[in-house]
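Write out the 3D structure for:
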Amino acid sequence: MDLDFSFETDHQKASPRSVESCETISRTKRRRDLFLASIGYHEFFSPEMWKAALTELVATACLIFTLTTSIISCLDSHESEPKLLVPFAVFIIAFLFLLVTVPLTGGHMSPVFTFIAALKGIITLTRAAAYVLAQCIGSIISFVIIKSVMSHNAAERYSFGGCTIARQRHANWTYQPGNCTYTGVYMHICVAFDKRRCKELGLAMVCAVVAGAMALAVFVSITVTGQAGYAGVGLNPARCLGPALLHGGPLWEAHWVFWVGPFIACTVYYGFTKSLPNET
């Protein structure tokens, strides 16, 4: 009887530690599960997400190839004002690509729109990471193809349609892609990411508004700079990645500008939307 009593007492002394240890493990597991749920980790195993990411890769590669070659063709034309042709080419191409890809993936085709969609909670961080990776790979593929078909003189003159800027003005140039991105993001969020407005306007009108914002941003950027090698911001940092890797030199040195500026603009815009009144 004494032995049983002694065993019971030892068990009672050990029990609180065991319970506390179990509670600690349980809390840690709950925090981990909440974190994984918040970033959408479950989508990592979703075939649908990878199909969407593959669609983004193909769409981004085709869009960048078509836009870059079209813009260079416009700038290399014998028109007196070739830059006036650029926004029309950008609008038509962007409109058609958006019309096809918006129903499939949301029509991002740019890390900028993917980033702001993740900030707004429209897509998960896991899906956003997959989209951005796909868009960057698509950019590299498109410029590998462009490099193989473009003449050497045109490639040197226009830097593969890359994002080239004056070396001594890197910090100042951050404002330009940032300002243009802010305008594009404003249009994209207010129209494309608003389900109620999408239903009211219809898919074609939404794509037209977003494509118009992209065309305006490209036109303003190439007009302000006046540089032959600068094909406009295009609201797409991934577009600058391919030429920076393939061509190197000044394109790589200034590459960070076309990521920092737009992502600062997205963050500022996201903060701005938090101060807006709710729609009635």
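The domain at 48-274 is CATH 1.20.1080.10 (Glycerol uptake facilitator protein).
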